[in-house]
Amino acid sequence: MDYQAVLDEVAAAVAPHVGRGEVAGYIPALAAVDPGRFGIAVADIDGGVTGVGDWETPFSVQSVSKAFALALVLARDGESLWRRVGREPSGNPFNSLVQLEHENGIPRNPFINAGALVVTDRLQSLTGDAAGALLEFLRAESGNPAVSFDHGVAASEAEHGDRNAALAYFMASYGNLDNPVPTVLDHYFRQCSIEMSCRDLALAGSFLARHGVGRDGARLLSRSEAKRINAVMLTCGTYDAAGDFAYRVGLPGKSGVGGGIIAVIPGRCTLCVWSPGLDARGNSVAGVAALDHFTTLTGWSVF
Amino acid sequence: MDYQAVLDEVAAAVAPHVGRGEVAGYIPALAAVDPGRFGIAVADIDGGVTGVGDWETPFSVQSVSKAFALALVLARDGESLWRRVGREPSGNPFNSLVQLEHENGIPRNPFINAGALVVTDRLQSLTGDAAGALLEFLRAESGNPAVSFDHGVAASEAEHGDRNAALAYFMASYGNLDNPVPTVLDHYFRQCSIEMSCRDLALAGSFLARHGVGRDGARLLSRSEAKRINAVMLTCGTYDAAGDFAYRVGLPGKSGVGGGIIAVIPGRCTLCVWSPGLDARGNSVAGVAALDHFTTLTGWSVF
Amino acid sequence: MDYQAVLDEVAAAVAPHVGRGEVAGYIPALAAVDPGRFGIAVADIDGGVTGVGDWETPFSVQSVSKAFALALVLARDGESLWRRVGREPSGNPFNSLVQLEHENGIPRNPFINAGALVVTDRLQSLTGDAAGALLEFLRAESGNPAVSFDHGVAASEAEHGDRNAALAYFMASYGNLDNPVPTVLDHYFRQCSIEMSCRDLALAGSFLARHGVGRDGARLLSRSEAKRINAVMLTCGTYDAAGDFAYRVGLPGKSGVGGGIIAVIPGRCTLCVWSPGLDARGNSVAGVAALDHFTTLTGWSVF
Amino acid sequence: MDYQAVLDEVAAAVAPHVGRGEVAGYIPALAAVDPGRFGIAVADIDGGVTGVGDWETPFSVQSVSKAFALALVLARDGESLWRRVGREPSGNPFNSLVQLEHENGIPRNPFINAGALVVTDRLQSLTGDAAGALLEFLRAESGNPAVSFDHGVAASEAEHGDRNAALAYFMASYGNLDNPVPTVLDHYFRQCSIEMSCRDLALAGSFLARHGVGRDGARLLSRSEAKRINAVMLTCGTYDAAGDFAYRVGLPGKSGVGGGIIAVIPGRCTLCVWSPGLDARGNSVAGVAALDHFTTLTGWSVF
Question: Per the domain annotation, does A208 fall within a domain?
């Protein structure tokens, strides 16, 4: 596959979509991003990486980090996580409390905010430094030691974090957080603030295409665990648009309000696309269009 | 009306109910109360007060305080409160977040916890010391300068206050709190911790039977405002059992999980009953039975 | 009380409200009503009746009929009805299915559509002709043998009755209807189609002000039952605006989308007001304003 | 792949699960099925079919039919269906009305009952005989002209069909059904009553593994449409257990309360498993276990 040619064609095709949608505006640091940015990278399972556009520009990973935090917890802790969080699509926005109340403080899945807070809480218990452990993992798998937190973004998230605080205290009221709420929120906000480029994220996510094998050839997850993370990404990775994403793109994916999306073609490659304009459900407009176009051009899809 | 005879008969009739139900167990200080306690007092609009049983024993007023906090805010601020809180029955438990999400952070009424937090927030803005202002008011109207906070209960509420913290942060995320969340929670927990006897509460609530006129003859609320607080108590004062309370008792009332209930017979008297055993919806079992029996004996009801 | 003078003043005061709001448009027969109509009548407990405006013009009673159907069932069947329908305010629109699903087919109260269908079903079982029994009762209590069904309205309701059919089949799926769904719907639509004037309805509802005693002096309901129907009207009679109606008007009331509202001042009189323009929650704009003004002028309120 | 050996091993492994769970009891015809039955068949894309156990015994396909009805509508009508039904996982049981009310009569996806009724309604408009068109299609693709309705089951479904009637009338109230409700229900109940064996269903579903190409080599659906049906099956095909099914089995699948499940391995084969005992969410206990085991043995998964 001539990735460069395919990505060039994808970039040309989606150019009219770049700049559409709304940049996430709930914190000033994200609202200031140029909506005209677009980058896409593909990391082959053999380790090569190709990209076009702003593919080497760092951006705020936000919820894309949730896929990696889940992988770290499953790798260390196995299936026990599922006693504290479900793995069903939520059918509700990412920050909803309604379902949480109906289901007694057990979040529907690890990718809505409530579920991600549980994952961070567990990672904190397992490592003593959830955000640090995740950063270290992302540096190692991306091969980029410069990956780091954006402390300004983290502080801004905390300042505007009343909704996430509500989710965390609510779960704490059901006994579903082991660490103090402020600790969990601090690590969660830092985790979301990590800055990476499409290149970094595509490489960091390669283990999901390599059925669990990491950058250095060591196994990070069992084959079965890697498949299962892909399954959770497909059914729950794009908020309440997961069905539509599966329908149009047909790949496991995880999006963030920074405008990034990673997508996995098991056994072949991992993609990362970035463009800050979001649709009404919080997914990058140009990003989804690019992945849609990529799968149409290549004929690659899990279906 | 020979109140003493009526109250004696009420006490005898409800004796089999005393001890039934569950004492509120979410904080140790409340859980330790003797479930066998029962007291009832009636304060006539002319200032006399009569009681039987444990009617002079202080107990934790808890949500009964919400009626007084609402009166203070309406007295100082008039109708503007209703931009921030509704006045419809909620149909949901007192600490539910579901409705709050569906209705964009505007609590359904001032007597569910979320609404009471908004009232406390407003009282804090108006007075600079919400809990203190309320305490002073209750001392003045009850004529008992010994009425005070139970700091142990307040601390215990704070320690087990994750659910209320969730409600407060959730409303803050919608911009519906003006003061910092920890400040609002602190005053709210202290407000709930106030200890008063049936005698104190019946006297303190007399202005609601006197159409707004306070202990010293000065007008605290307009006639219309006093009626309106009674209306809100009737439709919303006993959590999701308000319809049943209206059906059985037929009086405006406000209950608390400490086992106290005040009830108003406009133009006649104010009642307060206390017994710690609660039904499934958080109202005193023997307390509701006593009010039911009182209205049956006297034929007094707003209907 | 010089009712005529009071009603004249009320009519003058609310004239600016007449014509405001939206006439119920879901069936053509209702949509064609002149929004400029306004009438009000008061029936004293001694049997006298006074009115102004269009107080002798028949209109479609719609949901006002639910108060009378409830009275008939309670009179014949006592408290057993409450096993099949609750008596709590719903906090949801009158034709909502959400609560019905959460609560296993038991409607929240007898005045939302689902609850009224249960009442009609029970009345059908008790009488063999629910709509006919209700009509006969309304004729007798109003003293007007000309009160009758509007078969055109009933047919139109049936034609546009998919939502009510959904409610009925849904309850049937929980076993909460005893008669065939089409039978229940037929009687329900006819019950709602009854045409009466303010005069007729104020007289027909006098037993609720007379603590259960009917036109001919015979007891229709016990004193306690009459109070209880008033309580249910106050907490549930005006859909999801019951709290606001209690706050502003302070009387037990029952509204209909034909623009009529009855209200009860226990021990004094029964009012009926009619004006077709409805607010967003289905209550007559000028009707609520008129009752509000009436209680302000007279100082009469249950609170 | 030696299918026979794999299926034998699967059957041996899941034998302890056969008979577990509850046979669907809502209609007598289904309740009478022997819970000890188990069959599994695999239809290779080259047309061969292999099976073990009760793989040639007809059973009631129930909701498995929904995947085929969707295919027929998409084949004839393209994307326009999605204006009337969504394609997001519901997160609620298959017969819930709650979401339907929140979303104005637009069902969440075509595999919950409400959505399937819309599909049947559309198929009726397109063909004039929805159930007949579906039956003809299933006969042709399975190569078994004996496939037929079970009129006893259809009649029994109708007799116990109040819940589905509620769903249909509810959507009709939003204008989301074009045909009369009784017509839609009649075709829906007959569609669900079709009897087929694992052999029949695996063959009939082969076009989904062949990227849209039918039994006779003619294209039934475009490659893209076939992928998209697989995507909808993966995200929505097993009710509110879709996330769990994706996690454990990792294949597009569609289950029915008759105990059947079809699953697709795109480019390879289509599976059908049958065992009547259902889990709490309506999926065959032994069926899910068998598919889980099959994917583990073969290593085949879309992830």
Answer: yes
Q: What are phi and psi of D99, to 5 degrees?
A: -65, -35
- Chain B CB contacts of C232 below 8 Å: 243, 246-247
To test the contact with chain B by mutation, choose from A173, A181, A185 the residue with the greatest count of B C-beta atoms within 10 A, namely: A173
Phi then psi dihedrals of residue A180, to 5 deg: -60, 140
Q: C166, D167: Cβ pair inside 8 Å?
A: yes
Residue B122 lies in a domain: yes
CB contact under 8 Å between C303 and B230, yes or no, is yes
Residue B20 CA, distance from chain mean position = 21
pLDDT tens digits for D9-25? 999 999 999 999 999 98
Asked if residue D303 is part of any domain, the answer here is no
From C66, C73, C142, C275, the catalytic residue: C66
How far apart (Å, rounded) are the C-alpha atoms in residues C157 and C258? 12
ipTM attached to this prediction: 0.93
Helices D223-236, A223-236: axis angle to 10 degrees equals 100
**How many residue contacts between B and C have a Cβ separation below 8 Å?**
105
CATH for D68: 3.40.710.10
Say how far apart CA C256 and CA B202 lie, in whole Å.
39
Strands (E), chain C: 39-44, 49-53, 59-60, 195-196, 253-255, 260-265, 269-274
User: Would you say residue C38 has pLDDT above 80?
Assistant: yes
CA distance A224 to D300: 11
Buried b (16+ CB within 10 A) or exposed e, C52-61: bbbbebbbbb
Question: CB distance from D302 to chain A under 8 Å?
Answer: yes
Q: Check residue B94 and give its pLDDT.
A: 67
Please list the active-site residues of B.
Answer: 63, 66, 188, 239, 257
Instruction: At B5, list the tokens.
Output: 């005879």
Asked if C188 contacts C116 with a C-beta cutoff of 8 angstroms, the reply is yes
Q: Which of residues 94-153 of A touch B (CB under 8 A)?
A: 96-98, 100-102
Q: Which residues of C touch D97 (CB under 8 A)?
A: 97-98, 100-101, 166, 170
Ranges of chain A with pLDDT below 70 = 94
Is D234 at the interface with chain A, CB within 8 A?
yes
Which residue segment(s) compose the domain that C77 sits in? 3-298
State residue D102's pLDDT score.
80
Cα–Cα separations (whole angstroms), residue D38 to A234, B282, D51, D258, D261: 30, 50, 11, 12, 12
pLDDT of residue D49: 98
Query: What pLDDT shows up at residue A55?
Result: 98
**Which parts of chain B register pLDDT below 70?**
94
Do C99 and C239 meet the contact criterion of CB atoms below 8 Å apart?
no
CA torsion angle B150 B155 B159 B162 (round to 10): 70
Residues of C in contact with D96 (CB under 8 A): 101
Residue C99 pLDDT more than 90?
Answer: no
For B121-155, letters b (16+ CB in 10 Å) and e give bbbbeebeebbbbbbebbbbbbebeebebbeebbe
Length of chain D: 303
Counting residues of chain C whose pLDDT is more than 90, the rounded percentage is 91
Report the b/e string of D87-112 with b at 16+ CB within 10 A.
bbbbbbebbbbbbbbeeebbbbbbbb
pLDDT in tens, D177-191: 999 999 999 999 999
Give the number of other CB atoms < 10 A from CB of residue A87. 24
Find residues 145-184 of chain D whose CB sits inside 8 Å of chain C. Answer: 162-163, 165-170, 172-173, 181
Any domain includes B155: yes
Residue of A226, A230, A243 with shortest CB distance to D88: A243
The structure tokens 């099949």 sit at: C84
Res D94 pLDDT > 70: no
Q: Looking at the 3D structure of chain B, how many domains does it have? A: 1
On whether B164 is known to bind a ligand per the annotation, the reply is: yes
